[in-house]
Design a protein that fits this description.
This protein has 410 residues and is of the alpha/beta class. It contains ten helices and 26 strands. The chain binds flavin-adenine dinucleotide. Flavin-adenine dinucleotide is lined by residues 9-15, 34-37, 44-45, 47-48, 81-82, 108-110, 129-130, 156, 245, 248, 277-278, 294-297, 299, 323-325.
């Protein structure tokens, strides 16, 4: 083993960015990037967007081209799962029986779609969407189906529902909460998207759950709801949230209260083992709390920060969280957090389908939700990142030039 060999488990958004950033930061020792999927590492967001609509080819979703890994001396090992960490020996055991030694280990393991614990959940035609392999199946089945039930009105479920409705399918979304994307957006934006999906022809069923999925000859045929209704279905997409992949860390005795806990250096409770991305429970300076984030921004910014730290440069993870979701012709973008806001100010117009909601807490901007207002989103990221003061009155005045605040900050 070379003295500083770094092993990264998980070749997704975080793992690939970390390997790339380590080289950019001048790390010259061996990097092993291990992933249990067989496909060359790819981007997940297009799976529920352009890829689903056949608006991009498979090559178009790759995170890096084929030549990137050998050119950067990154040993990419695909289709191989890490199953045990021996912390004392600093050794990783793989499903194939092979062992890998490490001086530093990084867990970039992401998560899996939370399984649905009900009768019929394993019938043919009951699908989930996390991987490219699953997206290939979903896309084909979508094209061959008529009656679709989506379980869960989160981002993935709604992106899929919008595409399926646009392709002329009958789509029902079943959601336990009383509004869509309830964990992530304001009640105002939930109401806006509820109306938008209705206009697309999607039927949203709130405060409703599923008691069973039934089939014939092993294939899904209908979904039974808690209110007794039975929906015909030849395709069911389950999108009820993510379960962080922390089982390797847990089994090794690493602290995992809700995903893998890391400190401000992205180190776990073992100082030689680090973690980044969806599986990570961290204190977020913008959220003012310990939490997990499920976004490309979080995975890649944590990777960039960790690369610096691993080569001995000063760095701290305090990036402004941001996220996006495309549903039909609506681009939703979120910067920061609005869930604790005591004042929400509208800029733009719901009728014109272009608005932003600025959330304030005790007079301080905490987050901005934008729909078809990319300029506001970019502005919000700078305002939040550089703590540039802004008042609710200024936001509420449609004639005010908010960009002038950035010029003033230079
Ligand atoms: C359909 C879809 C649409 C999305 N849309 C958006 C969007 O619009 N905007 C946005 O910001 N985010 C979006 N996301 C979320 C975003 O993709 C994730 O936040 C991001 O992928 C997290 O990166 P990660 O590196 O933590 O995990 P991942 O990218 O999931 O990578 C983790 C990898 O580790 C592998 N792995 C796990 N355990 C092991 C093991 N023991 N051994 C080997 N390999 C292992 C996994 O199989 C996986 O390949 C979307 C996600 C999905 C699924």
């Amino acid at each position: 083993m070379s003295s500083d060999q770094i092993v990264i488990v998980g070749a997704g958004h975080g793992g690939v960015q970390l390997a790339a950033s380590l080289r950019e930061e001048g790390f010259a020792e061996k990097i092993i990037l291990l992933g249990d999927e067989k496909d060359l590492p790819y981007q997940r967001p297009p799976l529920s967007k352009a890829f689903l609509k056949r608006a991009t080819a498979e090559d178009g979703v790759l995170l890096r081209g084929h030549g990137f890994y050998p050119q950067n001396k990154i040993a990419l090992v695909l289709g191989e799962r890490a199953i045990e960490i021996d912390r004392a020996q600093r050794r990783l055991r793989l499903a194939s029986g092979a062992r890998l030694e490490f001086s530093k280990l990084v867990l970039a393991t992401g998560g899996i779609q939370r399984p649905l614990p009900i009768e019929g959940a394993t019938l043919d035609g009951v699908l989930s969407l996390r991987t490219l392999a699953e997206a290939r199946v979903l896309r084909e089945r979508l094209e061959a189906s008529q009656n679709i039930v989506v379980i869960g009105a989160g981002f993935i479920g709604l992106e899929f529902a919008a595409t399926a409705a646009a392709q002329g399918r009958k789509v029902d979304v079943v959601e336990l909460a009383d509004r869509p994307m309830a964990r992530a957006v304001t009640a105002e934006t939930s109401a806006f998207f509820t109306a938008a999906h209705k206009a697309l022809g999607v039927t949203l069923n709130f405060r409703t759950s599923v008691t069973a999925i039934r089939g014939s000859a092993g294939k899904v045929s209908e979904v039974v709801l808690t209110d007794g209704r039975v929906l015909p279905a030849d395709l069911v997409l389950v999108g009820i949230g993510l379960k962080p992949s922390d089982e390797l860390a847990l089994a090794a005795g690493i602290d995992c209260p809700n995903g893998i806990k890391v400190d401000e250096r992205l180190a776990t409770s073992d100082g030689n083992i680090f973690a980044i991305g969806d599986s990570v429970f961290h204190y977020n300076t913008h959220g003012g709390a310990e939490l997990r984030l499920e976004s490309v921004q979080n995975a890649t910014d944590q990777a960039r920060t960790l690369a610096k730290l691993l080569v001995g440069k000063p760095a701290r993870y305090d990036a402004v969280p941001w996220f996006w979701s495309d549903q039909a012709d609506l681009k939703l973008q979120i910067a920061g957090f609005l869930d604790e806001s005591d004042k929400i100010v509208l800029r733009g117009s719901y009728e014109e389908r272009a608005y932003s909601l600025f959330g304030f807490k005790a007079g301080k901007l905490t987050g901005v939700e934008s729909v078809n207002k990319a300029g506001d989103h970019m502005l919000a990221r700078r305002l939040l990142g550089e703590s540039i003061p802004i008042t609710p009155a200024l936001v509420a005045d449609p004639s005010s030039d908010l960009k002038a605040l950035l010029r003033g900050a230079r």
